[in-house]
C-alpha cells in the first residue's frame, strides 16, 4: 500500500468515510429533530388556537342556547325590595329576547328608604342574560350614556342607584350570575304600532339629530 505520513491511504479513506457517515447521521438527526420541533410547535399552535376558539365561543351565543334568566316572580319581588326598597303594587313582564324586563308600579303608600324622589311613571327592572352579564364594562358605559343624555335634555330611561349607591349589581340566582339594574320607565307607544304622519317623521328625525348633536 502507498504510504503517506506513515498512514495507509486506504485507512485514511475508511476513516474519512466513517467521519462523513457520522456527519451525515448528525445531519439526519438535526433534520428529524427540526421536523419534530416543527410538529410540536404546530401541535401547540393548534392547541392554543383551540383554547382561544373555545374561549371566544364561551363569549358568543351558541345556536339553540337558552341564556334567558331563570327567575320567578318571588325573585323579582325580593330583588326590588332588597336593592331598591320598593314594595310592588303591580308588576308586568315586558316582551324581551334574551333578558327579563319587568314593568313595576310601586306601592306609593309605603315610604321608600332608598329612593328619595319617586318616579311617577314606575320603573323597569332589567335582569340581563348570563352571557351579557359578564360584560360589566359595557353595562357601565350604557349607564353613563343614559345619564349623560338625560342631563342634556334627551328623554330616555335613566338608571336608578341601588342600596349600595351603584347603578347595577351582579346577583346569583338559580345557579347563575345576572346583572340587575332599575331604570325609570318612559311611557309611550312603540313606533311601529302608531299611524305615520309627516309630523311624526319630522319629530323622530329631530329627536335622533339631537342625540347626534349632544354626543
From TrEMBL:
It is found in: Cytoplasm. Coiled coil: none annotated. GO terms for molecular function: amino acid kinase activity. Keywords: Cytoplasm, Kinase, Transferase. Residues 38-66 are annotated as: Disordered. GO terms for cellular component: cytoplasm. Residues 38-56 have a biased composition (Low complexity). It comes from the Eukaryota. Belongs to the aminoglycoside phosphotransferase family. This is Aminoglycoside phosphotransferase domain-containing protein. The lineage of its organism: Eukaryota, Metazoa, Ecdysozoa, Arthropoda, Hexapoda.
